[in-house]
Design goal:
It contains 8 helices and 4 strands. By secondary structure, it is of the alpha+beta class. A 4-stranded mixed beta sheet has the order 2-1-3-4, with helices on one face.
Length: 162
């Protein structure tokens, strides 16, 4: 990918933000997650073109960066809705009823896990762990973690995001 293609795949603002992260790290590759988060923050997800441009900017192969992006479950490699709802299904959350919470979310939104509402507002995703076992069951809407969620809470918790 030439420099012109790189700039076409990433905005100047994204490149500048990524370079600012690189400046604080021992090598360019160490900024991989931050670079992915910067692009996702601007676009909502990381396309193949964006991933390839980031890889070139960080002196990595696309395969190396894609392995990071697909391992880190908060990087979205496909388009998602304006709001992403994740219901944790770890052991702690499972024991505390995450299946009922997930079903209540699915019913409220009219989608199944992995789907986006017709209006593009919400995507429902399962997630292995949100790291809040002491507050199980938990769900997260965008960056807002919600613990001790009960199926009856779902409408009240999701309505402010509409």
């Amino acid at each position: 990918m030439s420099e012109v293609e790189l700039i076409g795949a990433l905005s100047n603002e994204e490149i500048e933000a990524i370079e600012a992260e690189v400046a604080h790290l021992p090598d360019r590759q160490s900024a991989a997650i931050e670079a992915l988060q910067i692009v996702q923050g601007k676009r909502g997800w990381v396309s193949d073109d964006s991933l390839n441009a980031i890889a070139r900017l960080l002196d990595m192969s696309s395969a190396e960066l894609d392995s990071i992006a697909t391992f880190y479950n908060l990087i979205f490699r496909q388009p998602v809705g304006r709001h992403v709802v994740m219901v944790c299904d770890s052991v702690s959350c499972f024991v505390m009823g995450c299946d009922r919470v997930r079903q209540a979310v699915a019913d409220h939104l009219g989608v199944q896990p992995g789907q986006t509402t017709d209006d593009g507002r919400f995507t429902l995703l399962p997630i292995v762990c949100l790291g809040a076992c002491d507050r199980a069951p938990v769900m997260m809407v965008d960056d807002e973690l919600m613990g001790g969620v009960d199926a009856q809470d779902v409408s009240r918790l999701l309505d402010p995001f509409k």
